[in-house]
Amino acid sequence: MTLVDVARVTRAAYAEAFPAVTGRPLIKLPQTAGRSESEIFFDALALNAADLNADGEAERLLEPFSAELAAALSARRDDLAREGQALPGAADAVAGVAKLEGPGETSVQTVLTGSSKPNAMLKLRAFGLDGYVDFDIGGYGNEAYPKGTLLRVARERASDKHKLTFGEDMTVYVADSPRDVDAARIGGARSLAVASGRATAAELRDAGADAVLPDLTDTAAVAGLVARLTDPSRRP
Q1: Domain that residue 101 falls in
Q2: Would you state the torsion angle of the CA atoms of residues 185, 191, 197, 203, taken in this order, to the nearest 10 degrees?
Q3: From CA 93, how far away is CA 87, in angstroms rounded?
Q4: Could you say which of 82, 107, 122 is where a domain stops?
Q5: Whether 122 and 68 share a structural domain
């Protein structure tokens, strides 16, 4: 709910992948906003197949579930664009931030997401949003780290790949939930929160976001805030 809304298609993919792995129907899907695929799967086990959530069985099922979910979502690639949507301003926002590069500067954009890498790529490509995203350095929901740690991992990957130092003051996490604001704090990044998900602007401010926007439709405001948050001399 920061760049795209594909919840309807994703729910259908979960409903297909879960019984394929567990042999149980997915009657109740847990809350998905701001959560990783692994967290959602373990909670779904607790809600729908409690006896499989013990003796290491849950961990054993995670990898095949991730594969089934990726296959189910890939089979619905046409549905993503038909039943989902890129959120207003998303395309212009990623293009606008990419233009922030100046002399001796490099602007790098990636994703920090609860989705696995294949699923993240599929979702963004469905709406033509992948052109400005370096997927190699991202942090994904199938990795065994909380989001705050994944943010640090992604920054290290960016530094290694681009042979530059992307320090904490040079990193902005743009996201839509209080959990993401917490992840930015834990991961040592600035947070630009957008109220395009379930959280209100007030809730995002209360969570401690460094800046809050109602959505991504004001490209100049998005790019301007990213520039300000990564330039210590321009911060209040």
Answers
A1: 86-234
A2: 70
A3: 10
A4: 82
A5: no
Say whether both 32 and 116 belong to one domain. no
For the chain, what is the domain count?
2
For residues 4 and 87, the answer to whether their CB atoms sit within 8 Å is yes
Nearest Cα to 135, choosing from 121, 156, 116? 121
How does strand 4-5 pair with strand 85-86?
antiparallel
- Tens place of pLDDT per residue across the chain (236 aa): 999 999 999 999 999 999 999 999 999 999 887 788 988 999 999 999 878 877 778 889 999 999 999 999 999 999 999 999 999 999 999 999 999 976 667 789 999 999 999 999 999 999 999 999 999 999 998 887 889 999 999 999 999 999 988 988 899 999 999 999 999 999 999 999 999 999 999 999 999 999 999 999 999 999 999 999 998 666 55
112 with 78, same domain: the answer is: no
Strand ranges in 22-103 using DSSP code E only, listed in sequence order? 85-86
- Cβ neighbours of residue 219 closer than 8 Å, sequence gap 6 or more: 89, 92, 93, 95, 96
